[in-house]
Amino acid sequence: MKDFDKFVLGMALLRFFSGSMEILAGFMMLKFNEISKALIVNSLLALLGPTILLFTTTIGLIGMADKLSYGKLLIIFTGVGFILYAVRK
Questions:
Q1: How far apart are CA 2 and CA 45, in angstroms?
Q2: Domain count, the chain
Q3: In terms of residue numbers, what domain contains 75?
Q4: In a domain, 61, yes or no
Q5: Does 1 map to a domain?
Q6: What pLDDT, in 10s, does the model give residues 1-14?
Q7: Contacts for 62-67 with beta carbons within 8 Å, 24 or more apart?
């Protein structure tokens, strides 16, 4: 088995988890077969998405911290902040 970078592995595992939750949510919506319950499931996913984005980005930045200047880190955090601000309800 290939020896993966621990930061890349952590990021990938979070994305696998996120994707699995999306698929599970789709099945739950079909199982409930009610628009109100489907909207509740969808709302829970709306909370999960930005959280996964934040954690994945954090892991990546920790892995690259020694290679990035403070200015570039500030730009990245500002960009993530804009994304989180834009998706808030």
A1: 32
A2: 1
A3: 6-87
A4: yes
A5: no
A6: 689 999 999 999 99
A7: 62/7, 63/5, 63/6, 63/7, 63/8
